[in-house]
Known about the structure:
Blueprint: E1 2-10, E2 25-32, E3 37-43, H1 44-49, E4 57-59
Antiparallel strand pairs: 1-2, 1-4, 2-3
Amino acid sequence: MRYExxxxxxxxYGCEGIPEGEELMCTVLxxxxxxxxxxxxxADSFLTENQLKKGSTLLLxxx
Length: 63
């Protein structure tokens, strides 16, 4: 299914930082073709590697 990225929020790990062995995650607000919006979590590295940003199209099999 095709989604539009509405907004990206970096998760706040506080002063402790990212826990060891985990990667930086982002909460992403997406909207499907029918206008339904929902939040999903994606790795920051996935967003960066695929050059995804606000307004980008995201193709996902199932959310």
